[in-house]
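Following up on my earlier thread - several people asked me to post the actual chain instead of describing it. Fair enough. Here it is, all 294 residues.
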Amino acid sequence: MQKKKVRKAVIPAAGFGTRLFPATKVVKKELFPIIDKDGRAKPVILAIIEEAITAGIEEVAIVVQPEDKKTFKTLFKRPPKAELFEKLSPQNQEYSKYLVDLGDRITILIQDKQEGYGHAVYSAKDWVKDEPFLLMLGDHIYKSNIDKSCASQVLDVYEQVNQNVVGLTTMPAELLHKLGCVTGVWEEDTILSVTQISEKPSIEYARQHLHVEGMADDEFLCIFGLYALTPTIFDCLAEDIKNNVRLKGEFQLTTCLDKLQKKERMSGYVVNGKCFDTGLPDAYLQTMIDFRNL
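Reply from S.P.:
Thanks for posting it. Predicted structure:
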């Protein structure tokens, strides 16, 4: 397989945010504020994009609902009105210009129908074209434990193995009903040759089929929320969409990742860092407390 650099990132942000209702009636969950280490209040989506850019990503696509396109364009493509801009501090005026410059690298794509996370990813097919790409969740932010960012770690592994990479983290059995779970065979200390991916498995199924050698009995490898994928994932998604293969009424990504690892090789990488899920009330609250200080 010819080696191609990962230049593009896709961030689906077209969900309704039911778990954060009623706040999400008026504010997209991807626009909820977090306080960064510099003390600046940023929308979650900005922290995700900055993670991608610092990892060497050149172009970013955000997948949104049609009615939300204007909101995201206002954030990244348009400066404040002149009278509002003048009220900003000099530092914030500079930051406003930075956002508009950042917007030159951002494309806003539309998911016409809200039919699941997999369908949202598929909406980026024509934009991605025939390149590998970084896939990032729209409501997850990351904090590395080392100097290299979480996204950079995943992309470095992609460069090393030249095949699909899914970021992983260790989770206890009692949380599996919320997560995608991965099993396989260790190639190196932190790199796994993936043999199966299961969406929200039962504990009984996981114990029987998904345990990884060397891990504690009730600990499992789960999806971290960062993926470096080849465009073959779109073939897998297209197959599910054509055949109307849904889970809980929606087209899922995880089932297609399992198809992808059967078609092409896939590595799992245990990311040296922490993932913050801002799509749940308690998790969002904890992110507000922890993210700035870690």
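The first helix runs from residue 44 to 54. That should answer part of your original question.
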